[in-house]
């Protein structure tokens, strides 16, 4: 699957699919992306909707199929993600696919050292 989030908003630096249903992904954010001209000038902040879209795109890369988000629950935006200060982030994505096409997903975006957590999500996607 190809990343679709506004062209070069982020890049996947490392994608480890160590066990079925779990991925460890290192991402580099692009602090020069035009979205930050409006969100917010002089103090860029990664929009929450972009963190949700990153989750969707990483899930699609993991399973090799397109999905659609049906429910998002337990969305937690814990710390502002400023791409100038935190260009490299880590995603811990886990998912459980059912035969019906339903996929339960959990994702956490954090600093690579396991410290600061920016975002947590539990949701349901469908193929």
Counting H and I runs of at least 4 residues, what is the number of helices? 1
CATH topology label:
Thiol Ester Dehydrase, Chain A
CATH architecture designation: Roll
Strand order of the largest sheet: 1-2-4-5-6-3
CATH hierarchy class name: Alpha Beta
Radius of gyration: 14 Å
Alpha-carbon distance between the two ends: 13 Å
Sum this structure up briefly.
13% of the residues lie in helices and 45% in strands.
Protein model, in words:
The protein is mainly beta and 127 residues long. The chain is 13% helix and 45% strand. It has one helix at 48-63; strands at 10-19, 22-29, 68-77, 88-97, 102-110, 117-126. A hairpin with a 4-residue loop joins strand 4 and strand 5. It starts with 9 loop residues before the first strand and ends with a strand. The model has no long low-confidence stretch (mean pLDDT 94).
Topology:
Layout: E1 10-19, E2 22-29, H1 48-63, E3 68-77, E4 88-97, E5 102-110, E6 117-126
Antiparallel strand pairs: 1-2, 2-4, 3-6, 4-5, 5-6
Kindly list the characteristics that best describe this protein:
127 residues, mainly beta, Thiol Ester Dehydrase, Chain A, six-stranded antiparallel sheet, 6 strands
């Amino acid at each position: 699957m190809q990343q679709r989030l506004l062209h070069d908003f982020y890049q996947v630096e490392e994608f480890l699919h160590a066990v079925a249903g779990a991925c460890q992904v290192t991402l580099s954010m692009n602090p020069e992306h035009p979205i930050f001209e409006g969100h917010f000038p002089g103090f860029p902040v990664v929009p929450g909707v972009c963190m949700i879209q990153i989750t969707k795109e990483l899930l699609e890369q993991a399973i090799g199929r397109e999905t659609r988000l049906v429910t998002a629950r337990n969305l937690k935006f814990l710390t502002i993600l400023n791409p100038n200060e935190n260009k490299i982030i880590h995603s811990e994505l886990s998912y459980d696919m059912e035969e019906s096409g339903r996929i339960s997903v959990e994702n956490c975006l954090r600093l690579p050292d396991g410290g600061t957590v920016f975002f947590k999500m539990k949701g349901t996607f469908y193929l």
